[in-house]
Amino acid sequence: MRIKTGIEGFDGLVEGGLIKGRQYLLSGSPGSGKTTFGVQFLSTGALFDEPGAYIALSESIETIVEDMSRYNFKVRELIDKKKLFFLDIGPNKNYGEYNDIWTVITPEHEQRATESPEAAAPSPESVFKSVETLVKHTGVKRLVIDSLSAIRFTAHNPAQEERSISKFIRNLKTLECTTILLSELTKPDSYTIEQFASHGVIFLHNFMDNNDRMTRALQIIKMRGTKHDCDMRTLEFTPRGIRVGNPVRA
Ligand SMILES: Nc1ncnc2c1ncn2[C@@H]1O[C@H](COP(=O)(O)OP(=O)(O)OP(=O)(O)O)[C@@H](O)[C@H]1O
Ligand SMILES: [Mg+2]
User: Fold this and answer.
1) What pTM was estimated for this model as a whole?
2) 26 touches 60 (CB < 8 A)
C-alpha cells in the first residue's frame, strides 16, 4: 500500500507514494529542507487520520513548531488534536510542552548531561526505547527522526558502528510506522551504511549554480520495489510547503 507524503510534485515520482511501514532516509545539506519535508509528511498523514510524531534530537521542538507554523501545515491545531506529536530527546531535553508523553519516558542519556556533549548524545538503544514507548502510547503511524547524525553510534571499530546503525533501522521496522530518517549529507558521492539499510534514499541539495544563484534540488537515489524518477529536480518553498518541480538544467 502506498501512502502519500503530501509533498507537491513528489508522490507522482514514486508510483503514488511511499510503501507503508518502511524506513526512508532523507539526506541533505544544512537548510536544504529536511525538517520542512518531514513535518509536511507528518501533517499530511495527520490530516488523513494517520497520526505522526517528530522526534527531535538536534533542535528544540519550540523552534521547529514555531518555524513550521509559518506554513499552512496546521501544526498547532494537529498537536492540540493529538494527531501530531513532537518529542524532544536531544541532549538539551526540554519536552512535555506539546504533549504529556514525557511522563512515561526516561531517556537513558539524561544522566549524562553533565558529561561531555558527545557523551550526552543519546544512544541508539535509548532513542529506540523512547520512540517505541511513544508509538505504543499514541498509536502514531508516521515517524520522522531528526536526525540520525545526532545519535551516538559509537563503537570500537567501523564494522561495529555499521552493525549498530543497521540494527537501529531494523528495530524501527518492528514499530510498523512509515519512517523518515533525516541525516546530514556530507559526501553525496560516497555511500553510507544507512543508505544501504534504508528502503529508500532521497537527497536534498542546496548549492550555488554557475550564475551564483542558489539552487535547491531533490533527487531520489533509491526506492526499493518502486519504479522511480532519477532526475535532480528543482525544489521550491511555498506557503504550502515544499514543491518539487522539473529537472534541473545543467
Ligand atoms: N516561510 C518560509 N518560506 C520560504 N522559505 C523558507 C521559509 N522558512 C524557511 N525557509 C527556507 O527553508 C530553509 C530551512 O528549511 P529546513 O529547516 O527544512 O532545512 P533543514 O534541512 O532541516 O535545515 P537544518 O540542516 O538546519 O536542520 C531556510 O534556510 C530557508 O531557506
Ligand atoms: Mg532541520
Assistant:
1) 0.91
2) no
